[in-house]
Amino acid sequence: MTVKNFRGIMGNFIAGVTVVTLPGDPPHGITVNSFTSVSLEPTLVSICLDHGSEAHRRLNEGMNDSYCINILAEDQRWVGEYFANMGEMEQDPFESKNIETLSTGSLHFSSSIAYLDCSLYDVVKEGDHTIYIGEVNGGEVLRPEAEVLTYFRGKWGKA
Ligand SMILES: Cc1cc2nc3c(=O)[nH]c(=O)nc-3n(C[C@H](O)[C@H](O)[C@H](O)COP(=O)(O)O)c2cc1C
């Protein structure tokens, strides 16, 4: 299996899009669609991060032990593009009005469909990625009626 083939096949699996925020000075964000639910008791979720990413570096070096997973709405496509480093953008989402800081220090966007406030629970290194398992300490559905942002066959969409 080549990487090209693998990407081509996996791109057919429709996924929602999240932005994972890491508090700090400056804070950091990464666009992630490897997000999945893992366990109900305890409440665990996972994300899978490329070893080349700044987000992985921060978590791996212990700079962060908590993070927030924002499930993006269709009208937040620019936020997804911004944190996937898809080119120059005028506005930094961290400087927008709708960024909120939770008591745990986690950052979330009030325009997201929902968010999960997580603390690092376990780490599994596999190949060129690491699976970060987070325990969910809080969260909220903010926009139950909004359409969600999707990524399918290399294109943004909505559902
Ligand atoms: C829709 C979409 C989903 C992505 N999902 C992931 C993911 O699950 N894990 C990952 O490591 N990178 C993922 N990426 C790529 C990162 O967002 C991208 O490499 C980013 O620039 C890394 O940011 P950083 O190095 O500043 O942390 C995704 C990109 C897009 C557009």
Walkthrough of the structure:
There is one protein chain. The protein has helices at residues 3-10, 54-60, 77-83; strands at 15-16, 18-22, 28-32, 36-39, 44-50, 66-71, 99-101, 107-109, 114-126, 129-141, 149-152, 155-158. By secondary structure, it is mainly beta. The strands form three sheets. It has a seven-stranded antiparallel beta sheet with strand order 3-2-6-9-10-5-4. Strands 1-11-12 form a three-stranded antiparallel beta sheet, with no helix packed on it. The protein is globular and about 45 Å long. The chain starts with a helix and ends with a strand. The model has no long low-confidence stretch (mean pLDDT 96). Flavin mononucleotide binds at residues 17, 30-34, 48-50, 53-55, 84-85, 151.
Index terms:
single chain; 7-stranded antiparallel β-sheet; 12 strands; 159 residues; 3-stranded antiparallel β-sheet; binds flavin mononucleotide; mainly beta; Pnp Oxidase, Chain A
What is the gist of this entry?
The protein is mainly β and 159 residues long. It has helices at 3-10, 54-60, 77-83, and strands at 15-16, 18-22, 28-32, 36-39, 44-50, 66-71, 99-101, 107-109, 114-126, 129-141, 149-152, 155-158.
Task: Tell me the layout of helices and strands.
Blueprint: H1 3-10, E1 15-16, E2 18-22, E3 28-32, E4 36-39, E5 44-50, H2 54-60, E6 66-71, H3 77-83, E7 99-101, E8 107-109, E9 114-126, E10 129-141, E11 149-152, E12 155-158
Antiparallel strand pairs: 1-11, 2-3, 2-6, 4-5, 5-10, 6-9, 7-8, 9-10, 11-12
Bound molecules: flavin mononucleotide.
